[in-house]
Amino acid sequence: MTLADADLPSADEPLDDSDFGLLGEIRDMFAAADPMPAELPERIRFFLAFRDLEIEVARLAAEPDELAVAARGTEQSRTITFDSETLTIMIRIDANQDGTVRVDGWLAPSQRREVEMKCTAEPLCVTTDEQGRFAFSRVPRGTAQLVVRPAGLDGAGRSVVTPALIF
Amino acid sequence: MDQHRAATVQHHRPDRGTRIAGLMDAARQGSEDALGEIVTELSPLLWQVARATGLSAGDAEDVLQTAWLRLVAHLGGIHDVAALTGWLVTTTRREAWRVRAAGRRQFPADQETLDELPEPGPGTEEQVVVADEQRELWTAIGRLSARCQELLRIIAFAPRPDYTAVAAALGMPVGSIGPTRGRCLAKLRVLLDGEPGVTR
Lengths: 167, 200
Fold this sequence. Notes:
The complex is a heterodimer. Chain A is α+β, with helices and mostly antiparallel strands. Chain A has one domain: Immunoglobulin-like. Chain A contains three helices and eleven strands. In chain A, strands 1, 6, 7, 9, 10 and 11 form a six-stranded mixed beta sheet that branches. Chain A has a five-stranded antiparallel beta sheet with strand order 2-3-4-5-8. The radius of gyration of chain A is 24 Å and the shape is elongated. Chain A starts with 16 loop residues before the first helix and ends with a strand. Chain B is mainly α. Chain B has two domains: 15-109, Rna Polymerase Sigma Factor, Chain: A, CATH 1.10.1740.10; 129-200, Arc Repressor Mutant, subunit A, CATH 1.10.10. Helix content of chain B is 62%, strand content 0%. Chain B has nine helices and no strands. The longest helix of chain B is centred in the middle third of the chain and has 26 residues, at 81-106. Chain B is globular, with a radius of gyration of 18 Å. In chain B, 40% of the residues are buried. At the A-B interface, α1 and α2 of A face α1, α3, α4, α6 and α7 of B.
């Protein structure tokens, strides 16, 4: 069926409540048929947070299965390794009694860097010691990401980021 | 059905515009949190914009990331909330079409032309499950022109005060939706009533 505009005198009427209701139904229908992935805004927020950095993205060196297991929390500590062009980042994740997780890490080659844990709460920042060790004693569960920055104001070199972790 | 419609009317808090305007100011000052809240607020609309062009879910996600990244560079020049929504819709849609065109160049066997109108809604590539109570609406929308399908799908996710800016961003004449109903919605109502000329 095609409708000529002459058949549509109501097109010039102002929007009324039934129009808004109909648009609400259309929204509900598409929201059900083709929903935006729920975690997409979070991924975009992470993506935007790194926009100004000259970065290297570290890749997961351990098995992805191991990452998933680490997230369960009921397991004993697990170690995950990320490799980038210039840096290897190893982290060990332990569940705390209060529902948070403890994250201990090492950088190789060992060096002093600033390490930031971007998580769903306020980001946490620590500096590694000379051996490249760092620790976050309590990290809330949820999505998190590690950023390893050059240390100090005159810090040279690029920042390294890990893929999103789910604790 | 009218009762159902009344129940699904979207009530925007009257302070939404003020809240978003405040977030825009804060984001311009460099607040990542404010920018993040704007992302959370408007991404569901932009998802529909990208998907209405027929992109895969993965490509749609990349398109949204690109659109938001562009916004950061342009935020200083966007001064009201409706303009923000319109700018994001325009940018997302352009980027989506650019990605579609690039995809087609990679598959020269695909004979579709670039200026072809968007495919209707989802379901062009993926199976869509529509609840029984929505089937009548789904069918009626499927009988509209591709332009009208795209307009209604996107407007349905837009905040009400931004309807005019979004219609303009889609290249539809002012009045296509808000302050007047426009042809697309008028046609849909006629189709749903099954009887031309009858106002619901």
